[in-house]
Amino acid sequence: MTINWWTLALQAINVLILVWLLSRLFWRPVAAAIAQRQATTQATLDAASEARAKADAALVEVRETRAGLAAERAALLADAQTKAEAAAKAALADAQSRADALLAAAQTAIDRDTAAARKDNAAQAAELSVEIAARLLSQLNSPMVQAAHLEVLVKAIAEMPAPERKALVAGPAQIEIVSATAPTVADKAEIKESVIAALGGSPRLKFVTDPELIAGLELRSAHFVLHNSWRADLNAILKEMKDAAS
């Protein structure tokens, strides 16, 4: 077998031309397309990475926001609870204060009513006591008691200031000698003589009977009363008892 070197050389040249053509017309565009595809893919991957980073950052921000909202919600709830508890305590304190005021007012009213009732009871008891004493004393009226009252009356007249005695005697109206029971003629004479001696001058005297006196002798005129009776004494005692009760 003989080798045709010219044929072999031509085939080699053809192969070189084919390789050159392939590298010129096929491999370069394909390599460029592959490089462009790789660049596009890398850009897409970079964009995806960036988007993922942004998404992760947004997720972190969302989580932080949710955590902040949760903390704010917890703070608001705590503040609302604190305010509610404070309002409840204030309302309770106000209600307690009002209740205490009502109780104090009620106690004051009870004390006032009790004191008023006590005063009324004391006044009624005093009036009853005086009335009982008046009934008992009315049974003790006697000439001896009348004589004692005449003595007290004369003494009281003597203790009056002289100008008052003169004015009483010089007055236009009659002077009444008041007794619980009508005195006898002899008693009238004695009483009149004693009163004129105590007053002096020439007074106009008139005897009047007033059973309310119980016992005693009093002088009365239009603007003058000289009390001297058991009724006057009992009234004075009754006033002192009521004053003491109040």
How would you describe the overall organization of this protein?
With 246 residues, the chain is an alpha+beta fold. The protein has two domains: 32-114; 140-245, hypothetical protein PF0899 fold, CATH 3.30.2320. It has five helices and four strands; from the N terminus they run H-H-H-E-H-E-E-E-H. The chain has helices at 5-138, 143-159, 162-170, 185-199, 230-245, and strands spanning 175-179, 205-209, 217-221, 224-226. Strands 2-1-3-4 form a four-stranded mixed β-sheet, with helices on one face. A hairpin with a 2-residue loop joins strand 3 (217-221) and strand 4. The N and C termini lie far apart (167 Å).
Concise account of the structure shown:
With about 250 residues, this protein is of the alpha+beta class. The protein is built from 5 helices and 4 strands, in the order αααβαβββα.
CA-to-CA gap between the ends?
167 Å
Structural class designation: alpha+beta
Q: Report the order of strands and helices.
A: HHHEHEEEH
Low-confidence stretches: none
Adjacency order of strands in the biggest sheet: 2-1-3-4
Tally of individual domains? 2
